[in-house]
Amino acid sequence: MGTHVSKQVARRKAISTEKKTLCDLHQSCGEDFPDCAYKPPDRKTWMAGINPEKVHINQIVWPGTHDSATNRIGIPCITRPFAQCQNLSIYNQLVRGARVLDIRVQEDRRVCHGILTTYNIDVVIKDVKKFLSETESEIIILEIRTEFGHEDPPDFDKYLVEQLGDLLIHQDDNIFNKTISELLPKRIICVWKPRKSPQAKEGSPLWNSGHLKDNWIDTDLPSTKFESNLKHLSEQPPVSSRKYFYRVENTVTPQADNPVLCVKPVTGRIHGYARLFITQCFSRGCADRLQIFSTDFIDEDFVDACVAVTCSRIEGKA
C-alpha cells in the first residue's frame, strides 16, 4: 500500500512539473509565428478561400482530429469519458475546419476506441458525403484503420471504394506537388490501414499505411509529448521533398497507473499549447516539416492556427 501511495505521489509531482515546464515556456516565448493573427472568413470553406489554383498539397498544414468518431462512444457519463476524444459529429468537425479524420474500426464495421464501440462506419461516410456535397474545393484526408486488438472488417477495401467512388483521389506520389484545383472534382485521400489484409498498391483508389506516418508515444506527460513531437518532426524531410503525410498529435493519453483516467482533463494538459508548438517549430527550424497537426476536442483557434501557417507558406513567409 505504501509503495502504491509513493508511486502516485511521484506521478502527480511529475505531471505538475511538466505542466509548469510548458507554462513557463509559453510565458517566455509566447505565440508568435508568421501570419499568426490570420483567421479564415469561413472555416467551412477555408481551402476555397486560399486560392486552390495556386496552393499545392504539400504546402497545406492540415488540421486534424484524433479518434475522430468518438463523440457518441460508450455509455454517457459512465464509459464515455474514458474514450471520448471529440464532442462534435464528423460533419460538424469538418464544418469547423478539420480536414484529417482518424477513424478506428472493428470487424463488424463499427467504430471503436479500444474495447468501447459506437456507431457503424456508415455514419462517418454519410457525414463526409454531406459535407462534400455542400462545398466545392475542400479536400479531406480520411484515415481508417483496424483498431489494435481487433480483426479487419471483411472486404473493407471494396466497401470503401463502393461507398466513396468518384470522390476518391487515387494513390499517386505526384499529388503532393499538385494544386488543390488539379485534384478536383475528386475530394478524398482515403488511407486504409488494415492489420492483416493486403495494403493498397500504387494507382489504387485507396492509399496504403506508408503514406501517413507519425511517431505516437503513449504518455500523459505534456512536456514529454511536446518535446517528443518536436524531436520526431525535426527528423522528417521538409514537406517539399516528402512523398508521404506526417502527423503530429497535440494530445496526451490517460495512463492506467494514474487516478485521472478521463480523456478530457488529461489531454487538457497540452491542448492549449498548439500555437506554442507552432511557434517552437519556427524557432527550432522545423516549421518546413509541419504538415498534419491533430488534436482532441478540436476548436476554432486550432483550425485558425493551421490555416495561418498554410497562408504564410503561400505568401513565402514560411
In short:
The protein is 34% helix and 14% strand.
The major β-sheet equals:
7 strands, parallel
The count of β-strands is: 9
Amino-to-carboxy terminus distance: 54 Å
How many helix segments?
9
Description:
It holds the Pfam family PI-PLC-X. Residues 51-193 form the Phosphatidylinositol-specific phospholipase C X domain. One of its GO terms (molecular function) is phosphoric diester hydrolase activity. This protein has 318 residues and is of the alpha/beta class. Helix content is 34%, strand content 14%. It has nine helices and nine strands. The chain has helices at 2-29, 90-96, 121-133, 156-164, 180-183, 222-234, 263-271, 274-283, 300-314; strands at 62-65, 100-105, 110-113, 116-120, 140-146, 188-193, 212-214, 245-250, 292-295. The strands form two sheets. A seven-stranded parallel beta sheet has the order 6-5-2-1-9-8-7. A two-stranded antiparallel sheet has the order 3-4. Helix 2 (90-96) runs parallel beside helix 3. The N and C termini lie far apart (54 Å).
